Amino acid sequence: MTDLTAETPQQTTPLATAKAQLAGAVEILGYTEGLHRMLATPRREMNVAVPLRRDDGQIELFTGYRVQHNISRGPAKGGLRYSAGVDVDEVRALAMWMTWKCAVVDVPYGGAKGGVTIDPRLYSQAELERVTRRYTSEIMPIIGPERDIMAPDIGTNEQTMAWVMDTYSVNQGYTIPAVTTGKPLAVGGSLGRATATSRGVVHAAAAALGDAGVQLREVSAAVQGFGKVGSHASRFLHDAGTRVVAVSDEQGGVMRSEGLDIAALERHVLTTGTVVGFDGGEAIDNKELLALDVDLLIPAAVEGVLDAEAAGRVKARWVVEAANGPTTHEGDRVLAERGVVVVPDILANAGGVVVSYFEWVQANQAYWWTEREIEDRLEHRMVTAHRAVAAVATAEGISLRDAALTIGVRRVAEAHQIRGLYP
Ligand code: GLU
């Protein structure tokens, strides 16, 4: 039976955080234990062995997961993560967050996540292709454009989605682009998808600042993570006039109090693969970045970086969560005590899945929209979701996180209850 709470309140795993967040929302909503248990428990999980024949002929074995947390509002939806440390509990947490995220921005999906225990940086493209195709073929019975739709996450990209789509399609006997999103444009991807999460983060930041009468061009920012989300977010912030004073990646960070030249930094990353060594700023580490005296802090890397200790050092007035689960439950409490406004992940980084939804709709209709249409619709969704969340937060006197969670959880619970139990 699913444990409804973390074993100890100090637990800082993503699943402990996700469960504690759900428990908080359930309490606010006054739901029964039975309903709480339904909402806490994944509908379906699959664990698969993923063997790989390496380029040198050796055999290695990875574990793959796909967790479908909820499908009450539509097909399961969520990314696929390649990372050596992935485990089933992390995938469960990420799947649960996808459920609330899709509900908060009102796209007709449930939530899912996949993972394979591989560090993609250590393998050739040919090896990654074989791993991806084998994983896809193992989970084939539970995925599909009406069942469960995959997208990129940490360690995967457009190419991974093309291989998943091709493997699925070849086995079905015809091309089914809507089985994945975040694909290359050449095989039914959507304009604007590659930058959608980052654009959404910037819309969410602008909206939160706007509530305090502040504009993006008036603030300074630090961005942790310079990958698919953090790099574009830094550029869009810079373009909006924000002074982006620091960025970092896994290897370290750089800072310049007058603001970094993001275009020059991007060129440096393109040639060296890291922000470290960029001569347009001084070196700092990831810990220092989180504690910088900036207005806006954007964690755009991994889970759990803002635990109670790191949260106690945050000087920013706003934390906009571009990563999934960057703040632990305890960290959240500390930030709240310090008066930091946290724009929660399930709202702030929902731009990715919003444009994934647009990609799926376009693929289903075999009719492609212009970039303008996509960008305008994305902004509209983000602003509408922000307004709804901010209104609940003000009316109920709760945090933006609790407001977003109660909206998401309520929508899922409503769908679940209206459908009823079978038999
Ligand atoms: N991996 C992204 C996320 O965590 C995108 C998911 C999707 O588009 O399905 O939101």
UniProtKB/TrEMBL annotation:
Residues 190-420 form the Glutamate/phenylalanine/leucine/valine/L-tryptophan dehydrogenase C-terminal domain. Coiled coil: none annotated. The record marks 153 as: Important for catalysis. GO terms for molecular function: glutamate dehydrogenase (NAD+) activity; nucleotide binding. Substrate binds at residues 77, 101, 356. Gene3D superfamilies: Leucine Dehydrogenase, chain A, domain 1 (3.40.50.10860), NAD(P)-binding Rossmann-like Domain (3.40.50.720). Signal peptide: none annotated. The keyword Transmembrane does not apply. One of its GO terms (biological process) is L-glutamate catabolic process. NAD(+) binds at residue 197. InterPro entries: Aminoacid_DH-like_N_sf, Glu/Leu/Phe/Val/Trp_DH, Glu/Leu/Phe/Val/Trp_DH_C, Glu/Leu/Phe/Val/Trp_DH_dimer, Glu/Leu/Phe/Val_DH_AS, Glu_DH, NAD(P)-bd_dom_sf, NAD_bind_Glu_DH. It holds the Pfam family ELFV_dehydrog_N. The active site is at residue 113. Transmembrane segments: none annotated. This is Glutamate dehydrogenase. It comes from Cellulomonas terrae.
